[in-house]
Amino acid sequence: xxxxxxxxxxxxxxxxxxxxxxxxxxxxxxxxxxxxxxxxxxxxxxxxxxxxxxxxxxxxxxxxxxxxxxxxxxxxxxxxxxxxxxxxxxxxxxxxxxxxxxxxxxxxxxxxxxxxxxxxxxxxxxxxxxxxxxxxxxxxxxxxxxxxxxxxxxxxxxxxxxxxxxxxxxxxxxxxxxxxxxxxxxxxxxxxxxxxxxxxxxxxxxxxxxxxxxxxxxxxxxxxxxxxxxxxxxxxxxxxxxxxxxxxxxxxxxxxxxxxxxxxxxxxxxxxxxxxxxxxxxxxxxxxxxxxxxxxxxxxxxxxxxxxxxxxxxxxxxxxxxxxxxxxxxxxxxxxxxxxxxxxxxxxxxxxxxxxxxxxxxxxxxxxxxxxxxxxxxxxxxxxxxxxxxxxxx
Length: 394
Fold this sequence. Notes:
Radius of gyration: 21 Å
Strand content: 15-25%
Largest sheet: 8 strands, mixed
Number of domains: 2
Structural class: alpha/beta
């Protein structure tokens, strides 16, 4: 029996971007390659303009800009619609708002092949949470305007899709709240982690010395430097933490528009010496950083799940995060980490409690690795997605 042909749409090329969406696409595709022949259609971003093969996964360019996401997304979907007849598959899958152009073209032609809409963090929920944060700079207001538009597109695509896949019970609840879709067609398939790649390292001296940490305690943050990820909460918490533990270092891994703003705030607070910024790092180094950190801090204010939380726990590193959204499903509070209310003071208190207690960190780290290895691996995610693909064809 020949493998199913799957066409996946995602504006960002998965081999050049390393967000949760891109990681899921790659990790699932390579684990079901015997049963599913996957082609990913992505925008021409970061110089991507020639077909690329990654572990048997084909990545095919479709024109977009490389400016800001809403424009990239619009041009990419326009390109999908124009090249509709060239995209051959048994099943089509779009992540977030990356496939509406293809879906519109299919509707015009009366195509009946199954279309799966995969929703990560619900865009309408992200828009509402952003509005609740109060006054914004003009750039943030513009981003919110586009977010609202994209949320409407995600809603329409979800309503027209054969099946909807989402990553947590929380996201499923938000789909019901904001999108008014038939919930009978929603399937929950959480993201995962590779516990062989993300695991405890016995000797952290080399990696700590490489970035100048020495024997200092380290609080790690991994994520896009955008408002939703809550890095400013961590900056405010750091003011409190260094009063008690002045040698504590905060390692920030990620890129984004907030970087200069955050660095300016750190200068004003005289905290620059306690922060170390890394842009994109190679996968091997990222795994080492997770394992060698004493605490992983993830102060996101809106999250469907949070892959970085899974990676940290797989690395046997306890986490501190806010007690909201899909995070509550990704972390066992007081067992694999500490979940607190979204305030810098509570974030600081939780981090300090872990930094000062070696035995508690070790206990939570061991439990965290066991929890994600047994319940939230990419192998399980891929198995569940294969079941969804076969269901969509029935």
